[in-house]
Amino acid sequence: MFEGKRVVLAVTGGIAAYKSIYLASLLRKKGAIVETILTEAAQKFVTPVSFNGVTGHGVYSDGFQNINDEIPHIYLSKADMIIVAPASKNEIAKLACGMADNLLTSTISATKSPVFIVPAMNTNMYLNPINQENLKKLKEIGYIIIEPVSGNLACGDVGIGKMREPDEIYNFISDYFKNAEDDFYRGMNVIVTGGPTISKLDPVRIFTNQSSGKMGERICESLIKRGANVTYISYKKPANERINHIKIETTEDMLEEIKKRMSENKLLIMSAAPLDYEFESYHDEKIKKGEALTFKMKRTPDILKTIKPYKGDLKVIGFAAESENAYEYGLEKLKNKGMDMIFINNILKDNVFGSEENNGIMISKNGEEKKVPRMDKSLIADAILDFFKEQN
């Protein structure tokens, strides 16, 4: 798994920095070439000598001269992966803001490789709304967050914020790359849809829904990780720049983009929430304010029903977000819309819109079922792809 891989281990300031020495040693034992970045704050807790001793490779910090005739942050950015452990609140904030004011942030700004962020800090600092927003932003960009656990903290408090043990970090990263070695999805052409569609009433007003598109983005990221060729069709632009994006507005737009690509793709994952109704007419000028506003709506095409007669060998994974009788309606959709698998959840009970988490039940066309407990949408994406692979 790690044999011959270049790993940059970036260590920030915090008492948990000592654990990173063991992590560096563990990665080397697994065959990785480990190079280390120590921030100025990290060097108040650990020394370059310790990391050089366990890795046998360079330890770098701000002000370092060129490495093998390359600028340090460019050289380090070409590693196969970067692990920031521990990741302090300060460095997380810098990364979320796109800063590049030291070797660590400059290296990550320049890399196209997977970046793993391992937070470690006081409970109140970790739960601080700004820190949570920063972690959310990094996750949306495509960084992988290895969440802390609850336990005894250096300040004497007990709560969440404790950095995971080196063995746990290693296992998490190993599992991530096991998915990347997925022969089933490697080279597969996949269409993913996500988020809402819109209908314009006039140049200012639109009709839409609360779908965030996060589930679709997490599915795209999991597919890319597994080596698939992904086309993402949505109204909202994904935060992750690695995702090949086709922007649409209306349900009809989404249908046409899918139809164009059906013959070139093996799988369609319909995680979008396209509008069922749209305005019957569009007003070229902004409608002036009055006592009341009445307008007519018309049905939009049902995308999966429309493509069903001529989808050929295209496999389809659908979603059913229902407010009542979710299981029954989901089963009906699975059978009537030509799906090979469906993910069903109750939107009222589970409060999923805009959330980083979801839960539900997966059902294949063969009748196999698997419940998915509430968890991060990136893990939901992995569960969906794993279940589909098992059934095909």
Automatic annotation (TrEMBL):
Residues 186-387 form the DNA/pantothenate metabolism flavoprotein C-terminal domain. Pathway: Cofactor biosynthesis; coenzyme A biosynthesis; CoA from (R)-pantothenate: step 2/5; Cofactor biosynthesis; coenzyme A biosynthesis; CoA from (R)-pantothenate: step 3/5. The active site is at C155. Pfam families: DFP (PF04127), Flavoprotein (PF02441). Its EC number is 4.1.1.36, 6.3.2.5. GO terms for cellular component: phosphopantothenoylcysteine decarboxylase complex. The keyword Cell division does not apply. Residues 1-189 are annotated as: Phosphopantothenoylcysteine decarboxylase. Residues 190-392 are annotated as: Phosphopantothenate--cysteine ligase. In the N-terminal section; belongs to the HFCD (homo-oligomeric flavin containing Cys decarboxylase) superfamily. This is Coenzyme A biosynthesis bifunctional protein CoaBC. It comes from Ezakiella coagulans.
